[in-house]
Amino acid sequence: MSSALTDLCRYPIVQAPMAGGASCPQLAGAVSEAGGLGFLAAGYKTADGMYQEIKQLRGFTSRPFGVNLFMPQPQYADAAAVDVYRHQLAGEAAWYDTPLGDPEAGRDDGYEAKLAILRDDPVPLVSFTFGCPTKQTLDALKRAGTLTVVTVTTPDEAQAAQHAGTDAVCVQGIEAGGHQGTHRDDPAADVSGAGLLTLIPQIRESVQLPVIAAGGIMRGSQIAAVLAAGAGSAQLGTAFLVCPESGANALHKQAMTNPVFNRTELTRAFSGRPARGLVNRFMREHGRYAPAAYPEVHHLTSGLRKAAAAAGDAQGMALWAGQGHRMARDLPAAQLVEVLAAELSAASAALALRSAS
Fold first, then answer.
1. Counting C-beta atoms within 10 Å of the first and last residue's C-beta, which end of the chain has fewer, N or C?
2. pLDDT tens digit string along 146-157?
3. Which residues are CB-contacts of 196 (< 8 A; sequence separation ≥ 6)?
4. b/e burial code for range 14-25 (CB count within 10 A of at least 16 → b)
5. At 262, phi and psi to the nearest 5?
6. Above 70 in pLDDT, residue 7?
7. Contact 273/294 with Cβ under 8 angstroms?
8. CA–CA distance from 346 to each of 1, 234, 337, 357 (Å)?
9. CA 174 to CA 266: how far, in whole Å?
10. Alpha carbons 221 and 72: distance in angstroms, whole number
């Protein structure tokens, strides 16, 4: 890992940017204060909403943190397929007594306005999901003193990120909760993602970039494993989602270890893009019919998800979770960072002892 990135935090522990509210300033601040790297998720927020969260976070910590942006999405969705799915969801709208959203509510997520703020008022680190920024964008952030990271899921995506000039890549395995950060949403590749420990060495052999490893990591021993595989740090989302500082809905937090939700799947049901979540009624009933249409489906189901949460109905919510969700620990974020660091130290020491014997 390059010294510029390792200098950002005491431990090789990164709190994943989880869009939708979980990665709030309180959580990011607690993680950074404890020696990890906290992250804000700008996805689904307005540019001003992102800026206000950055100001709030700076009030919680003077230590480095990151901000994650969603890349604008190309127009590729089949409008007819989206309309069919709209009719498929009519019963949900009636059940929750809420209208379906406008699938054409926007597809750039305020990207340029957010970039303008981050150039004018730089933060230590900016990461990107759902694509790779232009070289000009990355260079502008570099001139502002900001390090950049691009989320990748294949060696080809990592090579594109290296060519564009990113400082590091976040390598996301198929185990990860939430959206797969693929640069191109290809329905034919929905079940072809690689596991993290397979993907790390493939990407290390493809590019000369530091690697942040993400996907299903819940324990310090797993952090030791990805470091041994060639990563410089580990990014954890589900592990931090249940912390009291997390802004995730209480039902979402409780579902992580609720035996009713005993497995995860990749689904397009809630957003039109593959995302891993706990299997619930909504996913079972609608997943097979959801088209490859992001962000159209995301906009379409937004009101339904909010209504389900307001009604206390976890069966209608997007319960994003990684494969290790049953290992979640309800600990304050600072304590979780310390526990993970202690587990990492013990696992590293055990590995060194075996290597020496």
1. C
2. 999 999 999 999
3. 171, 172, 173, 174, 175, 176, 213, 214, 215, 216, 217, 226
4. bbbbbbbebbbb
5. -105, 5
6. yes
7. yes
8. 21, 16, 14, 17
9. 9
10. 36
- How many CB atoms neighbour CB 1 within 10 A? 18
Identify whether the C-beta of residue 87 lies closer than 8 Å to the C-beta of residue 302: no
Continuous segment of H or E residues that includes residue 346: helix 333-356
Instruction: State the average pLDDT for the chain.
Output: 96
**CA dihedral sign, ordered 19, 329, 281, 91:** negative
Task: State the SS3 of 109-121.
Answer: CCHHHHHHHHHHC
Cα dihedral 18, 23, 27, 30 sign: positive
Q: CA-to-CA distance for 62 and 149, rounded, in angstroms? A: 21
CA proximity to 54, closest of 69, 71, 36: 69
Per-residue pLDDT tens over the stretch 55-98? 999 999 999 999 999 999 998 899 999 999 999 999 999 999 99
Here the tokens at position 278 are 């706990």
Three-class SS state of 267: strand
Collapsing DSSP states into helix, strand and coil, what is residue 212? strand
Pairing of strands 275-278, 178-179: antiparallel
Q: What is the spatial distance between Cα 70 and Cα 228, in angstroms, rounded to a whole number?
A: 30
Cβ–Cβ under 8 Å, residues 217 and 235: yes
Contact 149, 168 (CB under 8 A): yes
Token match 């995730």: residue? 248
Pick from 266-270, 278-282, 346-350: least confident: 346-350
Specify the DSSP element, H or E, that contains 338. helix 333-356
Long-range contacts of 343-347 (CB under 8 A, 24+ apart): 343/219, 343/220, 343/221, 343/223, 344/11, 344/12, 344/13, 344/220, 344/221, 344/223, 344/224, 344/227, 345/220, 346/220, 346/221, 347/220, 347/221, 347/223, 347/224, 347/225
- First CA to last CA distance, the chain: 27
Q: Who's near 222: CB < 8 A, 6+ residues apart?
A: 216, 234, 324
